Amino acid sequence: MGDILTQIQDELDMLLNQMFITLRYIQTSSPSAPITGQPTLPPLASDPSQPDPNTNPANPPTTSKAEFTHQIAEFAQDIVTKEQQLEILFDALPGMGISEKEQRERMEALQGELEGVEEKRREAGAVREGLVEKVERGIIGVRGG
Questions:
Q1: How far is CA 64 from the centre of its chain?
Q2: GO CC: one term (predicted)?
Q3: Cα 135 from chain centroid?
Q4: d(Cα 2, Cα 120) in Å, to the nearest integer?
């Protein structure tokens, strides 16, 4: 698996996807309710110019109230679980619970360590160049001799 930030991004994408799916389910499956103060109109199913809501894919068949409530509870539990997983990842981020001064000191120590490693790399590069020259001289000596 990737680094912690990639994991957080992936989990956040999944959380937002779950939220979208939940909102879409509520939009398409929630039972309609009358609005107070507004007249209630009879269904338009008798009008032949209106499509039958049971055959229109944009309006899927309605679910029972118990099934709807159960599904919403399940979606809510999934979202809470995903949020808790994100919290665990947030807590695992380096620097959590460490003061700014301690973080700066750690960064300075790592910078010094990096400079030491970089110097060793330069030295190893110089040794490599010396060995390459030696090998080239040896090859030229064998060819010429």
A1: 34
A2: mediator complex
A3: 51
A4: 29
